[in-house]
Amino acid sequence: MGLENRGKRQGARGKKKKTAIYYITDNGFRLAQRISKIYPDARIVKFTSAGVIHELPLQWNKCKSLIFIMAAGIIVRTIANLIKDKKNDPAVVVVDEKGRYAVSLLSGHLGGANKIAKDIAGFLKGDAVITTASDINNLPSIDLWARENNLVIENWKLIPKIATKLINKGVLKVYADAGAIHELTLPKEFLQVNNPKPADMVIANKDSKLKTQNSKLYLRPVNLVIGIGCNSRTSADEIEDAVKKTLGEHNLAFASIHSIATIDKKGNEPGLIAFAKKYDLGISIFTPDELNSAFSRRQSAISLSNAAFKATGAYAVAEPAALLAAGADTLIVKKQKRGNVTVAVAERVKSQELRVKYHKASNLITHNSKLYIVGTGPGGIKHITPRAQEAIRESDVIVGYGTYLDLIEDLIKDKEIVSTGMTQEVDRCGKAVELALSGKTVSIISGGDPGIYAMAGLVFELLKGQGARGKGQEKENSKFIPNKSGQNSKNLSLATCHLPLSVEVIPGISALNACAARLGAPLMHDFASISLSDRLTPWNVIEKRLKAAAKADFVIALYNPKSKGRPEHIHKAQKIILKERSPQTPVGIVKGAMRENEEIIITDLKNMLAHCIDMQTTVIIGNSQTVVWNNRMITPRGYEKKFKI
Ligand code: SAH
Predict the structure, then answer these.
(1) For ligand 1, is residue 453 a contact (CB within 6 Å)?
(2) Tens digit of pLDDT for each residue in 306-326?
(3) pLDDT tens sequence across 50-78
(4) Cβ(23) – ligand 1 distance below 6 Å
(5) How many CB atoms are closer than 10 A to CB 640?
(6) Are 462 and 362 in contact (CB under 8 A)?
(7) Residue to mutate (ligand 1; options 381, 385, 533, 559; most atoms within 8 A of CB)
(8) Which of 11, 73, 554, 575 could tie 528 with a disulfide, CB 3.0–4.6 Å?
């Protein structure tokens, strides 16, 4: 049976995100524009004969989904030569010019065309045309179910045969081994059998010796942790060979590998990294002390080596590393030495990554761990950047605070959501990091900009805290692989090795941008932004900053101006600023900028408190030059004086 690697088995589609909408006629163009409301980052492209030759093949490889507004026949002829297989082909959906039907034409299940057709039909109030037999018969789709349950399909060729059996008989016999079954909920059509022999579908990381390949569908749970020790400069090929041989001899599926585990020293070993990269595997690293502590707890499971201790400070590497990373007490393959490589295998304990505490999980370096810290702007979807939308769309899990999530409801409706109250942001952040480290793509959402009174700083504070402790208390924690200069705080590249996961901060339109735009141009000159919340900053510091900004004639943007718990702060702020500025200084008060309940008021410093100011409001106080003209608040920068306009 052919082994598929993780990169390949996900299919090229895993990396594609984009949508393109093709049209021919003017009506088609108008419909494309309507449809793009639910796919705001979609490219709208005119379908031409030249494009078919040059542009379409490019989009075919780049896009996750292609929507065509034209006759189905044109598309069938056009894409015939481009079609490869259901793991790689994009979703193809055809919509008639009037938007009455959205037809799922290709990649209905894994590619998501069925869902897109349903979404478009729902949006246009038309009908979705779905022809996949499982959907028509209300039966589970095996490939989708496998993906949702993180199972790798090993022998794809058998899918049509087994799916047909499910449709004809209404049930399938399924065998799942002990390691897999407690993670799964089988649909009612999957009848569980107690041994693999009569099964149509086998869900296991291990095969019985009598495995008959031709008639059963094999789904592999991704739950093996491979502990590896190796000499310096061992090649990736030699490591791969040792792992494959070890697994082969024990009838274990290569496709079931979840991650690799090793000693910290080997975290930068080129051969090991190349092997991990090739198969898209994460690497967990442990200090010698951590490895040795595993040995003291699980003495019987681990073989000790004085030679290893001399070389590394750890009595063993492959075995304890596998056990620690898997959260297991027993090995399923004890240490095997092959040339320069030792290999041991453990099976991950159920939802290991969710049970380990955040600080423990940060040992994991998963190449595919991704955390986006996304700013969603002040209001609805219109004011979110395309990059932020892309990141959200790419994410498996969305972590955020209820109000902000409500504002972007349409974007996140098919995602796993982790939502907590506003003041539980530390829990929220820790959870987001934990989920990302478990291999999921996670977006942690902030309104406005994530780096302004929001979550970005907290995520980095959490990660930095781990790094600092890792350096100072190596006995207890080894968290980051330090870079060559030994500094954790620098080189925060997008996919850095020095952080345990890849973090990208995606900016958003902050409240001060949105409110300034609504007011006119009050921030044209130097300004200070001050939050009146004393939840994290002592009030005397806030007062000091208010005084300084007022004295230095900065325009002042006040965030968090008022809440039920501290209604007096805005009064105090007004008093402080009045000491330095005229009572007639223009003041803009914007509530719910770019939201449905938006309110814009232009008043002055003396009268500002007569208006409603709450936690959805930002107050902008002009400087000595700020004027009101035509209901707009403007802080001149000096063009008028300099150029006499
Ligand atoms: N990260 C956010 C700020 C979070 S602090 C940003 O960059 O905008 C929360 C404060 O932001 C609120 O109390 C309010 O002062 C301001 N704010 C957020 N959204 C707003 C909006 N749509 N209109 C006016 N003020 C807003």
Answers:
(1) yes
(2) 777 788 888 889 999 999 888
(3) 777 778 888 898 899 999 999 999 999 99
(4) no
(5) 9
(6) no
(7) 559
(8) 554
